[in-house]
Design a protein that fits this description.
Layout (H helix, E strand, L loop, with lengths): L1 H12 L2 E5 L4 E7 L3 E8 L5 E8 L7 E5 L5 E4 L5 E6 L10 E8 L7 E10 L8 H4 E5 L2 H78 L3
Antiparallel strand pairs: 1-2, 2-9, 3-8, 3-10, 4-7, 4-9, 5-6, 5-8
Length: 222
């Protein structure tokens, strides 16, 4: 059980959404190159498997190929947006076990495409096999994806830091400009205060001198 929990964490960290249940496996991942392959192991005899592949939110042309444990191509679909097929096509005595490989490719990829993959495996009596316990290993180039996602996260963090630094520099320049304008206004106001204070002192002295002169003139004998 701890193995599947660790696998789920690895898939989640590699930009893959995965749901395990008693009847199916539901995976969602980004197709960022011309081909991505998913490996899974079936170690219990079964009669048929249903596989559904679709490009989410688009009809992006995809090609799906199922490779059996012997290494030969068991099924291949043409380019289209959605795929659903059964392997084998007719329910019968199909008991092949081992490592299967499912490759999803596109020759026209220009940007990452989100892909949904659903796998359902049936027993010989048409009951669903417990996929969570019988699909022992499902991987999607986890080491490479982890490194790629780490690099992308680092680039995104670096870009965010650069943007924040530019914003900080802009804000500092704005604050420096506003501070300079405020300082000029304060200095101008202080100079005006000093000027009018000096003018007030001179005016008081002038009025006082004029009053003294007027009083002396009035009191002096003719």
């Amino acid at each position: 059980m701890s193995r599947y929990f660790a696998l789920l964490l690895a898939l989640a960290s590699s930009n893959v959404f995965c749901i395990f249940s008693d009847s199916y496996v539901d995976m969602r991942f980004l197709l960022e190159t011309e081909q991505e392959c998913v490996f899974f192991e079936v170690h219990q005899p079964h009669s048929q498997m249903d596989i559904a592949v679709s490009a989410l939110k688009s009809e992006y042309p995809l090609s799906v190929e199922l490779i059996n444990p012997s290494g030969s191509s068991a099924f291949k679909t043409p380019n289209s947006g959605r795929h659903y097929f059964k392997y084998p096509e007719v329910d019968g005595s199909f008991h092949e076990i081992g490592d299967f490989q499912l490759c999803i490719s596109s020759r026209q990829i220009r940007q990452p495409v989100q892909v949904s993959l659903i796998i359902v495996i049936h027993e010989k009596n048409a009951n669903n096999i417990d996929v969570a316990s019988n699909l022992k290993r499902i991987k999607h180039n986890s080491d490479f994806d982890n490194a790629r996602m780490t690099l992308k996260n680092f680039e995104q963090i670096t870009l965010n830091i650069d943007v924040q630094l530019k914003i900080m520099k802009t804000e500092q320049a704005k604050r420096a400009f506003v501070e300079k304008i405020d300082r000029q206004h304060i200095e101008t106001a202080f100079e005006m205060i000093n000027f009018w204070h000096i003018m007030r002192v001179f005016l008081v002295l002038f009025i006082a001198g004029f009053q003294v002169h007027a009083i002396r003139t009035l009191l002096s004998p003719k």
